[in-house]
Every structure is written in structure tokens, then in C-alpha cells.
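Notes to self after the Tuesday call (sharing in case useful).
The group wants a holo model before anyone commits to mutagenesis around the pocket. I volunteered. Ligand is shikimate-3-phosphate. Logging inputs and output together so the record is complete.
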Amino acid sequence: MALHGRLLVRGVVDVPGDKSVSHRALILAALARGSSRIHGILRSEDIESTAHVLRTLGVDVPPLSERMTVGGRGLNGLLAPATNLNCGNSGTTVRLMMGVTAAQSFPCTFTGDVSLSRRPMRRVSAPLEAMGARVEFLNADDGLPLVMHGGRLSPIEWRLETASAQVKSAILLAGLCAGVPVLVHEPAPSRDHTERFLRAQGAAIRWGNGRIELDPGGSVAPLDVQVPGDPSAAAFFAALGALADDGAVTLRGVDLNPGRTGFVNVLRRMGADITVENGIESGPEPIGDLIARPGILRATSIGPDEVPSLIDELPVLACVAARADGETAITGAAELRVKESDRIASVVANLRAIGVLADELPDGMRVVGTRAPLKGLIRTHGDHRVAMAFGILGSSAATELAIDDPACVSVSYPHFWRDLAGVTA
Ligand code: S3P
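Result:
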């Protein structure tokens, strides 16, 4: 990326299908009675991991394609796997499938790549063990590989210490497959895609005011779903529009679930001009187009209440803060330390390496914006969102960044660099 004089953005990005919705569409289609149609699924390495795990459990999942049909096996139809369940880099795959397999009568061994193997899994095993499953951690005292010894489960009421859609979903899926009621309390609202899917499939589920209650019946209906565009992918281009000197970028068909769009509020607060057009409720999720235009950027504070709605967007918001006037503080985001990399450490180290004043906090970071030229090498630690965040910053005026591993974006957004070139050329 060269030292640009000015950044002009122009054009439309059809962001890829939402990653969280794509995982759930495959898993819930696999558990439905009958064939489900899925349109617009994300084709990326993380979703390949979920497809691979389901195939290993006997589910008829064809190659990922724009329009695909998945043959469901019902809630009790999965088969004992002949091999380990390799989840690659995907936390959502392992955590949601731990919930599903906790209710099966056969053991399953979960493995993953180096990054995934280091990520905490006791937060998932604890409620599943309280329901009656047994989880054997083979190497460390947390993380992968682990063996899930599933079986008959009991109803559970569980209080999450930290808002986590993955843990909540694991408990809901365990209750669903075992046919036992579950009640989950969450300290702040996390993304509710699993709940929306289950409601659309006819399950007796209620949620609101920090409570999620499922009273499972004996089956769930098949799906006919259009996967909306991924707000976490759109956020990179919204940030690009905010950082630009002129122009506008349109992001089409984005999931506008309020549990995912915290970044829109933050970018607006920072001075960017973000508008929503063509908003509709289509299927389980609300969708619409986002149009992002530049503004005079100023620093902001992002606190614990907002964090669950923008947790995956914090790396790119920190990169926008690097070009905003004043000091931005992010707090209440200790969860960033256990993502695909320690995102507090990796974002701050990269910002400092290119000339931005930034500091780690135990649960967040401080970033002081600058207009000075920024230059240097970005170390991604194999983390897709770090690569894309700095890819966006690297496109802004007076910035020249090299990314050590640009290919790592393929876990969530294989065409990211092509799409970025398309709106900045
Ligand atoms: C996800 C939930 C979030 C998010 C992750 C995807 C999901 O993780 O960071 O990228 O699809 O449920 P947590 O549940 O750990 O907060």
C-alpha cells in the first residue's frame, strides 16, 4: 500500500454472508427434520470447518454454494464420528458443536489449529457438565484438544459471567438436542441469531431482559433462509468510508440485528456520516444497505455496555481512532484477549509500530489520533480481523503499511483485498 495523498472511495460492496448466521444455518439445518434451503451462505474457511464437522457426524452437507440444500437428520440422528472433529480456526464451530454433541450417546474429540487450541473452552464445558455431560481436556487445563462424553442431560438454569453468544448457543443447542428445558441469564445482550433461528423453526423460545428460555419439543422444522450480509465485514468498509477524504461507499444487504450494529453508532459519534437505506425485515434477521461517507473524525469512549454489540469490530474502530482528533478509550473489552489473537496486545503493538500513541489497558486500550504519516509492517499473528483492520487504515491518506500475512483473511472474508481494491481504485 502506497502513501496516498487523498483517499477517494466510490462504489458498492456486496459483503459476504454473515459468518455467525452461516454457522447456525448449517447446524440448525442439520438438526431439522427434512431438507433445508440456504441461500447466500458465507464461503470461507470457518464455515468449511462447520460443514466438515457436520459431515463427519453423518450429515449430508454438499459443497458450500450460493444455493444449497442440507439434508437434516433430526435431533437424534447424528452418527458417531470415525475421526476427530477438526474445527480449524473456528471458535463458533467448536463451541456450538460442543453443545450439540453434549447430548449424543457417543464421544467426540474436538481439535483445532494452534490459535483455536489456546482459546478458553471451560466456559462452555462448565454448563454442559452441569447438565450431565463430561468433558476431558487432553493437554492443557483449558483449550483443545478435548473429548466430549455426551449422554442424557438434565434441565439447567445458568448465569453467564460474561455475555457470550457462543456459550449461550451451546447451552440452547444442548437443551434442544437432549429435549430438556434451559434458562440462561446473560449480563448484557449478546447476538441472538440462535434464538431467532429457533423461533423461525417453531421451537418454544422466549428471550428479553437478560433471560433466554427454551422449552424444546421433539423436532425443529427445516429452514428456507437467505443469509444476510455480514455486518462485521461491512464494518471494515464503513470504517473506510469514515477515514476517506471524499466519496461514499455502499454496503448492500447487511444484517442490521441491533446485537451487531454497535459500530454504526460509534462511527457516527466519531463524526462519520453513515446512513441506512432499504431496511426490511426479511426472514429471521432485519437487513438494509449502509452508506458510509467521511466526516471530521473525533475521539470517543467505548464502554462495557456497548462492547457485546461490536466486540469483533474493535480492531477496526481502534484503527479509525488512530486518525481521529483526541484520545479514544476502549474499556470493558477483556474478551478481546481470548479471540483469534490477543487483540488488545496485537492492535496496540501494531499501532505503536507504525507511529501511533497507544496503550494497553487490562480490559481495553487507549489510542491517540494523529494526522502524521504512518508507516510500517503489520504483524497479524494469523488474525483475520487484525489484517483487515490495518488493511483499511493502510488505505487512508498518508499511510503506507505492509501486512505480514494478508491471506489469513480467508477464515471470514476470502475476497476482502479484491473488494477493498474495488472501492479505492
Ligand atoms: C460469535 C460470538 C462472539 C464473536 C464471534 C462470533 C457467534 O463470540 O466474537 O466472532 O457467532 O456466536 P463470544 O460468544 O465469545 O462473545
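Two things stood out.
The first helix runs from residue 19 to 31.
The chain has 13 helices and 21 strands.
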